[in-house]
Amino acid sequence: MSVVFITGANGFIARALATRLRARGDTVTGVDLRPDEAAGVVAGDIGEEGAWQDAAAGADLVIHTAAVVSNAVGLDGQWRVNVAGTRHALDAAVRAGASRFVQFSSIRAFSDLGFPDGVGEDHPVRTDGNPYVDTKIAGEQVALQAHAEGRIAVTVVRPGDVYGPGSRPWTVLPVELIRTNRFLLPAGGHGIFSPVYIDDLVDGVLLAAGKPEAAGQVFTLTGGAGVPCREFFGHYYRMLGKRGPIVAPTPLAVTVATVMGTAIRLVSGPTEVNATSMRYFTRTGTYSIAKARRLLGYQPRVDLTEGMARTGRWLRDQGLVPA
Length: 323
Known about the structure:
alpha/beta; Rossmann fold; two-stranded parallel ribbon; 10 helices; globular; NAD(P)-bd_dom_sf; aldehyde dehydrogenase (NAD+) activity; NAD(P)-dependent_oxidoreduct
């Protein structure tokens, strides 16, 4: 039985982790912008040092999920949370006497500009000017530096495209866009998507957090197989009773996303409908999980068919797709 402190505790992945941790008997607390007293979550802005750091006192494990996950926020806003916030979370973990710190990064640390198919963790990360990509790489550096200095044992996880009940980027938002006929795929829909169902991701994170041999290591955690974007998002079209996906050549799709995003931004503010998000759907390769299989015993159990069946039931329960 352990005490676990989670940053970004109200988020999709953090809630799934907390549910699993409590089910096995652990005590879970955390920090988020909004408090949740019933769940042991205090209010705090990880971009700043503050009293929230004291709430980690007594934690055995700190899992750092808090981040700006967006293609619509500039470099300063993302650096403040994704990089400086990582340092503040590390400082809290060290002061708490925690024995392990799990840093959430992303497969996007390999860059959106291209990487070898089946890329592994030994492949160099690559900044590409995208604030999210660049700050995720910098956040890894901050965490691994703390490990190298002997301040705390650190493990870095790079989740794939996480979907399932509660996922905003890869479940709720696509469904909203498809329902309103604002979803378009570039590259004829043939770009490669690397999904991981939330339950499998939680399995991998808890293995990484608990294995002594995972200290100082970086692990990619996906479902183990890439699928064409048109296949992944096609599930949502069928749930909504629509034909699709709608696809286009990449230059046209990027232009449409730029124009549409500008219009949405003028009316509603920042939006994930933009050229950067569109280019993300043009990836031509996927990511190896051989290291996680070998060192952690990680084995994804939920394939896309089953994951989408579970996701569809949740979407129907939420009234987001027809019953």
